[in-house]
Write a structure and sequence with these properties.
Layout (H helix, E strand, L loop, with lengths): L6 E5 L2 E3 H7 L4 H10 L9 E3 H10 L2 E5 L6 H11 L7 E2 L3 E6 L5 H14 L12 E5 L5 E5 L4 H9 L7 E7 L6 H12 L4 E6 L8 H10 L12 E4 L8 H13 L4 E2 L6 E10 L3 E10 L2 E2 L3 E4 L2 E4 L2 E3 L8 E2 L4 E5 L10 E5 L2 H17 L9 H6 L5 E8 L2 H11 L8 E9 L4 H9 L2 E6 L5 H10 L3 E4 L2 H12 L7 E17 L2 E14 L3 E6 L2 E13 L2 E2 L2 E3 L3 E6 L10 E9 L1
Parallel strand pairs: 1-4, 6-8, 6-9, 9-10, 10-11, 22-23, 22-24, 24-25
Antiparallel strand pairs: 2-3, 5-12, 7-8, 13-14, 13-21, 14-20, 15-19, 16-17, 16-21, 18-20, 26-27, 26-33, 27-31, 27-32, 28-29, 28-33, 29-30, 29-32
Helix pairs in contact: 1-2, 6-13, 13-14
The chain binds guanosine-5'-diphosphate.
The site of guanosine-5'-diphosphate (GDP) has 16 residues, from helix 5.
């Protein structure tokens, strides 16, 4: 029998049960039994967190430590933010919280209920304004900022643009409905962003609420609550009746405090544009979140390639404010064009600094967005740009997902680990593309397609989507990419058509006298001859002439003489179609 190795061991912050079994050299069954003994009900394909893994590892004689998470774009940006304030004391700042979960589980109701606690406390004088986020105070007077666009789509869209905005994610689960597909999505999105999770078990007032069932389901998805030996805080609430909202806020602070969130209120403001719109009366209104420093009236802010002087600021009660410190959401009038949601902004000393920053941004934008694609994966691995291949898997049915997951998790190499950041049944959605973009992941569609919006976003964000209908082909492709052998994929794009108007004879050769009806014909094009809608020949041009001269291309409206290699049967009325191969 093999003796099991023991001693120091590094474990990731989350991992699949079966991966852990491999690391610890125990059988999956043995591991699952041990997990159950410590109150964690996970099957072989589920994700568990470091704490749970470490507990079992310790029991088996290992000395576990947590591996540092891989650096991300958002981490780099955060570092940029903190550098700006290096020379000043950094003070505690309020946490910024996002609310995510399945549709109808009560995200909006919860955000309303939280907001109302503040009104009930007699704090707000004005009419509440929608400015993308709001701040409330807990019973003991500590502020908490909530992003008031619920849902993981907005959260991840922002992250895709490099913005790390949130410190805590509240996952709302309805106690009468349980864990649903978008609950899992929300969990995966929070995890991919490395944002700590807190569960609000909502609708506990309902007679058919079943908290124990939901807790069990959460454990099955790797969200192990404290009661079950994990470290995820769960608060039962009723958004409708306003029950337990104060406890929820206290728990948010508890989860936030572990992170020791700090900022320097004395520095120049840095933050993120949450949303922006054109207002008939005021002009461009940008709702922003200050993340570090303090923004003041008269400051010049730069975002993307735009800049402007802050003329006025309003808080979430509609009141005019002169300054906005860390974690404060405000609505600002400053810019002359609409900025992009999710872009960072920065306050600078003067116009010159603003121009310099805009120049830098242009340079950065040109070189940024080092996207991962299967075609370039090997080069990126060699250059040390990727160490983990993140995959997002969508399939037509659960059975395919299970099979694919099995295969894919096996093909990690020493150099590069294959990591599944999200999987699901159904079409590839816009949220999937944002998640992939934010996590530099490749999307695999197995017998499934992207919807229209997803396709557009994928093009804009240069997200590589691959489609497959056989498993071995997918596994082959990824293995080939890891070994740097992937054949590039080409697509034929039609460039133009010509109609044969006359036939000339030159010796035995038949030459088509044609007119180009649309697009153009190029000398190196791939040629198809169509007769009555049917293809009668394919090949390349034997010759392409204008008058007596060989030419490289002939454009719409012009006439030309042509022959097709290996085909000597052109007839009047034939359509000659020219296309080129484009790498996709
Ligand atoms: P969202 O889609 O997640 O934003 O969900 P909503 O906040 O729109 O809530 C969906 C439905 O659930 C609405 O009809 C709410 O009135 C109801 N609802 C939300 N929270 C509760 C709750 O705590 N108890 C009960 N009984 N109903 C709730």
């Amino acid at each position: 029998m093999k003796t099991r190795p023991t001693g120091p061991i590094e474990l990731p912050s989350t991992m699949l049960v079966k991966d852990l079994a491999e690391i610890l050299t125990v059988s999956p069954n043995e591991l699952i039994t041990k997990l159950i003994a410590s109150g964690i009900f996970a099957n072989i394909n589920q994700v568990i967190d470091y704490k749970a893994a470490a507990a079992v590892a310790t029991e088996l004689g290992f000395e576990p430590s947590e591996a540092a998470p891989p650096p991300s774009v958002s981490a780099a940006k955060t570092e940029m933010i903190s550098k700006s304030a290096e020379n000043h004391p950094r003070l505690a700042r309020p946490p910024v919280v996002v609310v995510m979960g399945h549709v109808d589980h009560g995200k909006t109701s919860l955000l309303d209920a939280i907001r109302k606690t503040k009104v009930a406390a007699g704090e707000a004088g004005g009419i509440t304004q929608h400015i993308g986020a709001y701040q409330v105070e807990t019973a003991d007077g500590r502020p908490v900022t909530f992003l008031d666009t619920p849902g993981h789509e907005a959260f991840t869209a922002m992250r895709a643009r490099g913005a790390k905005v949130t410190d805590v994610a509240i996952i709302v689960v309805a106690a009468d409905d349980g864990v649903m597909p978008q609950t899992i999505e929300a969990i995966d999105h929070a995890r991919a962003a490395q944002v700590p999770i807190l569960v609000a078990l909502n609708k506990i007032d309902k007679p058919n609420a079943n908290p124990d069932f939901v807790k069990q389901q959460l454990a099955e998805h790797g969200v192990v609550i404290e009661e079950y030996g994990g470290d995820v805080v769960l608060v039962p609430v009723s958004a409708k009746k306003g029950e337990n909202i104060n406890t929820l806020l206290d728990m948010v602070l508890l989860v936030a405090d572990v992170q020791d969130l700090k900022a320097n209120p004395k520095g120049h403001a840095v933050g993120t544009v949450l949303e922006a719109r054109v207002d008939k009366n005021s002009g461009i209104v940008a709702n922003i979140l200050v993340q570090d420093g303090t923004l003041k009236i008269g400051d010049i802010i730069v975002t993307g390639t735009l800049s402007g002087k802050v003329r006025a600021m309003f808080d979430d009660t509609g009141a005019r404010v002169k300054t906005a410190g860390p974690s404060k959401p405000v609505s600002v009038l400053a810019l002359s064009e609409v900025p992009t949601a999710g872009d960072q902004f920065r306050a600078v000393a003067d116009e010159r600094a603003a121009r310099r920053l805009i120049e830098e941004h242009r340079d950065e934008a040109a070189s940024a967005n080092a996207v991962v694609s299967l075609d370039t994966l090997y080069t990126q691995m060699q250059q040390g740009k990727v160490k983990e291949l993140n995959l997002l898997l969508k399939a037509d049915v659960q059975g395919s997902l299970d099979a694919l997951r099995n295969q894919l998790t096996k093909i990690s190499t020493d150099q590069l680990k294959v990591r599944l950041i999200h999987e699901g049944v159904g079409n590839i959605s816009e949220a999937d593309v944002h998640l992939a973009s934010a996590s530099k992941a490749i999307i695999i569609g197995f017998n499934t397609k992207p919807d229209g919006a997803a396709q557009r976003v994928a093009q804009n964000e240069h997200v590589d989507i691959r489609f497959y209908d056989v498993i071995y082909k997918l596994v082959d492709d990824i293995e080939a990419a890891l070994k740097g052998m992937l054949e590039p994929v080409y697509k034929e794009v039609v460039e133009g058509h010509a109609e044969v108007m006359q036939i000339f004879k030159s010796g035995k050769m038949l030459i088509g006298g044609c007119r180009v009806t649309d697009g153009k014909l190029t000398r190196n094009a791939l040629v198809k001859v169509l007769r009555g809608g049917k293809e009668v020949a394919t090949g390349s041009f034997g010759s392409l002439k204008r008058g007596k001269d060989d030419v490289r291309e002939v454009n719409t409206g012009f006439e030309c003489g042509l022959t097709v290699d290996g085909f000597n049967d052109l007839q009047m009325g034939d359509i000659v179609q020219a296309s080129v191969k484009v790498r996709v």
